[in-house]
């Protein structure tokens, strides 16, 4: 005997979930979330993808634009580093020496970094480029960050990280990173949940072909998106702070060499982060020699003492594979090494964080890394364009942008829904720019459903 259909609160028959939905109760919910996130978060992802594409290309562009400052003809013998520093100071006497980066290769210039130079951003340094063979100054440019970004890359980096809006602008990139893995994961579930025949691209047309392209490219690029999302969150404002707290509580914070003379490694953000005293020319040669004796090969950075009682810090700055991140502290009075920190001794999570960030920024594997990032950025741009095209065509010229049906969460059994909501709440706490928009999505969905219900045009929303 057939069973009468279940009725809603207003007496109309409740839609019966299709067989596929009953077998996979989360699928309609994932589809709904994928739709909302795709429509509302995609603009932020599109900006991140376009600016990320530019940033990945900026490394090679920088070599071309600043070739005169970065490279020199190879000479017979390099001059003592002290003479090169003296030449830089003669050309630019303002400010103080905050670091010196000796020429890392035979055709590269030496960089003498000056802080406190009038007209230079306080967060930047003035890099004076010196020919190591003749001590002639080849130019001076503002530099930013540990990777030595020059004006072109610095501008693109700021555009990608915060839209050139400072700390407030960083919220956009954190929002994009918080949702990229959710959208990618939801797309994977939806794509592989479709029958194989419906995932084909060849021989299809219209919206189905767009869906096939969207799903296929998304499935192939998903692993890269997960990686970009995870690594992007590690230095975000809010989620990044939670990650740092977690690493510190687990004893996995990044250590730094101690310049205080005690010989014990400082914690994350400890001493040795930067100096302010102008080095005596003779000191630089002796300090570099002491670092070489400890096996610190190029490229290195020499940081002067922060005060009269501190030591010099010499640290390797190669972030391409294999990474060189060893550091030593050297007593300026005696030239003796007072502390040594090897990258091999860093905690596991500190190493993984370092590798992840360097791969995310395109320096870990050099040009191959940058090409991979550009390919991922292009994939994301195409996916967003295809996604909006599908949204446009969903209504088939009668209802532009018609969303997928509401009420998907009502099909999820309580035994699944309750633990899922608890997990989402915990995740939303640690990743607030995922949790807050998600609450907003739900609120908007419920509100629109209530409005449609009262107008008698939609499925009522359970209260």
From TrEMBL:
The chain crosses the membrane at residues 33-57, 171-192, 213-235, 371-391, 412-430. Keywords: Membrane, Transmembrane, Transmembrane helix. Residues 1-20, 254-279 are annotated as: Disordered. Residues 79-139 form the PepSY domain. Pfam families: PepSY, PepSY_TM. InterPro entries: PepSY, PepSY-ass_TM. Residues 260-275 have a biased composition (Gly residues). The keyword Cytoplasm does not apply. This is PepSY-associated TM helix domain-containing protein. It comes from Streptomyces kaempferi.
């Amino acid at each position: 005997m057939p069973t009468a259909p279940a009725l809603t609160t207003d007496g109309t028959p409740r839609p019966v979930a299709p067989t596929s939905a009953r077998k996979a109760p989360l699928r309609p919910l994932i589809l709904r979330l994928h739709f909302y996130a795709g429509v509302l978060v995609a603009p932020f992802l599109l900006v991140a993808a376009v600016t990320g594409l530019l940033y990945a290309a900026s490394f090679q562009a920088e070599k071309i634009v600043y070739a005169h400052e970065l490279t020199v003809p190879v000479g017979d013998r390099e001059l003592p580093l002290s003479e090169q520093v003296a030449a830089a100071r003669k050309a630019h006497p303002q400010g103080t020496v905050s670091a010196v980066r000796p020429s890392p290769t035979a055709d590269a210039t030496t960089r003498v970094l000056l802080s406190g130079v009038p007209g230079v951003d306080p967060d930047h340094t003035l890099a004076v480029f010196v020919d190591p063979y003749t001590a002639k100054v080849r130019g001076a440019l503002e530099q930013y960050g540990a990777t030595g970004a020059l004006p072109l890359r610095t501008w693109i980096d700021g555009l990608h990280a915060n839209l050139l809006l400072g700390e407030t602008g960083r919220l956009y990139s954190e929002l994009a990173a918080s949702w990229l893995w959710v959208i990618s994961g939801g797309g994977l579930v939806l794509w592989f949940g479709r029958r194989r025949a419906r995932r084909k691209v060849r021989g299809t047309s219209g919206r189905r072909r767009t869906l096939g392209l969207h799903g296929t490219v998304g499935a192939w690029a998903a692993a890269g998106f997960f990686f970009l999302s995870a690594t992007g969150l590690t230095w975000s404002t809010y989620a990044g702070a939670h990650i740092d707290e977690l690493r510190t509580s687990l004893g996995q914070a990044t250590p730094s060499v101690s310049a205080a003379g005690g010989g014990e490694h400082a914690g994350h953000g400890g001493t040795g982060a930067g100096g302010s005293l102008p080095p005596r020319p003779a000191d630089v040669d002796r300090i570099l020699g002491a670092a070489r004796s400890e096996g610190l090969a190029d490229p290195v950075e020499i940081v002067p003492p922060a005060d009269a009682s501190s030591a010099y810090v010499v640290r390797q700055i190669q972030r391409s594979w294999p990474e060189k991140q060893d550091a030593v502290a050297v007593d300026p009075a005696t030239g003796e090494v007072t502390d040594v920190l090897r990258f091999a001794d860093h905690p596991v999570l500190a190493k993984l964080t370092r590798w992840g960030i360097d791969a995310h920024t395109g320096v870990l594997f050099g040009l191959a890394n940058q090409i991979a990032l550009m390919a991922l950025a292009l994939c994301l741009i195409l996916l967003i364009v295809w996604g909006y095209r599908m949204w446009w065509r969903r209504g088939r010229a009668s209802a532009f942008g018609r969303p997928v049906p509401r009420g998907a969460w009502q099909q999820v059994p309580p035994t699944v829904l309750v633990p899922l909501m608890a997990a989402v709440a915990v995740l939303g706490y640690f990743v607030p720019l995922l949790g807050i928009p998600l609450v907003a999505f739900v609120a908007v969905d419920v509100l629109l459903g209530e409005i449609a219900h009262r107008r008698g045009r939609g499925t009522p929303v359970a209260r």
